[in-house]
TrEMBL record:
Membrane-spanning residues: 316-341
Lineage: Eukaryota, Viridiplantae, Streptophyta, Embryophyta, Tracheophyta
Name of protein: Uncharacterized protein
Keyword Transmembrane helix: yes
GO molecular function, one term: LPPG:FO 2-phospho-L-lactate transferase activity
InterPro entries: CofD (IPR002882), CofD-like_dom_sf (IPR038136)
This protein's UniProt keywords: Membrane, Transmembrane, Transmembrane helix
Cross-referenced Gene3D superfamilies: CofD-like domains
Amino acid sequence: MALLATATPPCGLLLTARASASSPGCFLRAPRSRALRRAMAASGADAAASGGSAPPSLLVFSGGTAFNGVVEELKKVTTRVAHVLPVSDDGGSTAEIVRVLGGPAVGDIRSRCLRLSDESTSEALSVRTLLGHRLPLDPSEAKLEWYQIVEGEHALWDGVSQPYRETIRAFLVYFHNEILRRSAEMFCFTNGSIGNFFFAGARIFFQSLDAAIFLFSRVSQIPAESLVLPVISTNDRLTLGCELWDGTIIRGQNEISHPSHGRKEVVNKDCNSCSALPSRIKRVFYMSSEGSNLLHEVFPEANRTVLEQLSKVDCIVYAMGSLFTSVCPSLVPCCFVFLFVHNCIT
């Protein structure tokens, strides 16, 4: 699924809405890839007319995995892209970090940062390989390999210079120490992402998700004009929920998209990997992660940088990703400001 909403400044955003008996409510529909090419061409023409040569600027709402294949090609067209990603994923390696250490989910952000990272030198490729590495599925083997990595003895460090090695390893060690401090919780390293561990260590050290993204971006040498933005900038755990048309409330992103019994180390994201929900989804929202009433709805504020970018870019892209667990979670906090900025409401 890829939807586009184009705007050629200073004109307003072009959107259409449709509702039908078979699909209650309305959704935004906009032109497909041809419109994106037109928007890019228009932006290029505007830049040429003003004597500049700036490529088009985009803001992309997407999932953490589905759009990654497009990122490689998009980098060849423009690096002026703000990638807006949800931080409510509670499956796989991310789930274990959130379970033991709390905080927002960093898996989707880490995945996008890796796709945007520099590949021009052998060291850049070595850093990307290290941060993109996953530990084995066998618990004993995973723990053994993790100790080799955190102690700096693993072959993955080959090709990484001393300054980079010490910077990355410092936050892996910090992450490990945070795990050891939680003696009541046994951490499972199975299929763990080294990039997720580095990211979580940086976030806890700085007490800032934005600072962790900044550090990861610099270590990975992501172009300065390429932004990776959490739709909600927080240090707290975020839980996604949904209400079905039959009144059922489901808690947790993974239970919405890939319902299962018990915790799974590897989430199968194939569309046929799990059974359908008992009823259609009516709405998605954020739920309380603390207190006794875990079904309580909460309303987190959208990241201000995301709202600023919404009013500045040439084109807004609703890209590939799960509609209800990737795209909608990013739209929920931005909804009213998004419509106001583009004169859809007053």
